[in-house]
Amino acid sequence: MKTILNVIWLVLSGFWLFLAYLGAGLLLCITIIGIPFGIAAFRIGVYALWPFGRTTVERRDAGAPSCVGNVLWLVLAGWWLAIGHIVTGFLLCLTVIGIPFGIANFKMIPVSLMPLGREIVPTDQPFGAR
Predict the structure, then answer these.
(1) pLDDT of residue 129
(2) Where are any strands of DSSP class E within the chain?
(3) Which helix H or strand E contains 69, and what residues bound it?
(4) Burial grade of 84 (CB within 10 A; 0-12, 13-18, 19 or more)
C-alpha cells in the first residue's frame, strides 16, 4: 500500500517538492557556511520524494552545533517551510482521497522546522539507526 501511495505522491507533489528542496540545497551549498544547511535541504528533499514508509528520528550524537544551526534555520527558513506544509496538508485533507497525502505533509513539519540532528529511517526500524 505504501508503494502505491508513494507513486501517487511522487506524481502529484513529491517530485516538485524534491526539485524545490534540491534547488534550495544547491543555493545553500554555494557558501562554506551554508553547506550543512544545504545537506539538510537535500535530506528533506529525498524524504519529500518518497515519504510513506519512512519517519524521522533525532540523532543522539548531534551536539551544540546542530542546536545553533537549527535556531538559525528556524528563524530564516523553518517557519516558512512549516507554514507551507501546514497549508498544503490542510488543503489535501479536504478530500477523502487526499487525507493520506495531507498527513504526509504534516509528517514533514518537524524536519522542516529543525532538520539538523535528525535522521530519516524506515518506519519499521525507527530505533535501528541509533
Answers:
(1) 52
(2) 54-58, 118-122
(3) helix 64-73
(4) middle
The type of residue at 95 is: T
Categorize the per-residue pLDDT at 126 as very low, low, confident or very high, splitting at 50, 70 and 90. Answer: low
What average pLDDT does range 7-33 have in this prediction? Answer: 88
Nearest alpha carbon to residue 55 among 47, 66, 63: 47
Q: How far is CA 34 from CA 19, 24, 29, 91, 109, in A?
A: 18, 11, 5, 32, 21
- Read off the pLDDT of residues 34-65 as tens digits, 9 standing for 90 and up: 898 899 899 999 998 888 888 888 887 878 88
Q: Give percent helix, percent strand, percent coil of the chain, each to the nearest 5.
A: 65, 10, 25
- 119-127 — which CB contacts under 8 Å span 24+ positions? 119/56, 119/57, 119/58, 119/59, 120/43, 120/46, 120/47, 120/54, 120/55, 120/56, 121/54, 121/55, 121/56, 121/57, 122/53, 122/54, 122/55, 123/53, 123/54, 123/55, 124/53, 126/55, 126/57, 127/57
Measured distance CA(67)–CA(45) in Å, rounded: 21
